[in-house]
Amino acid sequence: MKPFKHDEIGYWSEVKLDIVRKYASAYSRIMNTQRSIKNHLYIDAFAGPGLHVSKQTGEFVPGSPLNALAITPRFKEVHLIDLHGGKAKELRRLVGSQKGVFIYEGDSNDVLLHQVFPRCRYEDYNRALCLLDPYALNVDWTVLETASQMKSIEIFYNFMIMDANMNVFWRNPEKVATNQIERMDKVWGDRSWQEAAYRKTLTLFGDKEEKAANEAIAEAFRKRLQDVAGFKYVPHPIPMRNEKGAVLYYLFFGSQNQTGARIVKDIFDKYRARGMR
Prior knowledge:
The protein has helices at 11-33, 64-69, 85-95, 108-116, 141-150, 161-167, 178-188, 193-197, 214-229, 258-274; strands at residues 8-9, 39-44, 51-54, 60-62, 77-82, 101-105, 126-132, 153-159, 198-203, 206-211, 238-241, 247-254. It is α/β, with parallel strands linked by helices. The radius of gyration is 19 Å and the shape is globular.
């Protein structure tokens, strides 16, 4: 049997893992002190195989599932999802049969809405931290909106701006394929993304549409998480880059809790101040 080939990750992916780990640790400590809370859950919707390889050192780096399982006090339940059967199998091998750990192989949108989120109901005194770290633009808006409306779930979400730029936000929007437009509709929740992605400018020959800057699109999505999905607190996201400095995605946080948002803002700001490497 061939050994499992782990993904190589760069500096900013390691930063993301560190950000989520730091907040998850603070979150679990806080939830553990709340007598009114029955259970607090950790959810990883694109869990991967549990380990990565650092491009910088060549060493294994624990992924978000292993980081979450190492946190004390422990989360009462840990739910790990991946569509890729090989990754789910490797994750099962690493995790074993630990109590309170659930591993799913399937579409995260479906698994979250029908199997995991029902275990996080506010009225049942349950709370959850959910990491949405997709490989592409494949988290449905319904998932984000449902998490907000439940008022019991906080999210980290990677909005894949590079995927959007490559496949949807073209300089000539008329040439974008229909299936890519429909994919963006599912991610954004409707077609108002066109207003965020393009700006009309007046020229001598009439109106001209120009693609908006990444920062403007990210800000439009941040406001949408607040005003449409209904998260009360959405700090400004932190851009995650590749080795050439191009932004791959924006890491968002959404919560109904001011304390959680303040902690995440502080963590974001510390890494933002470091600049690029």
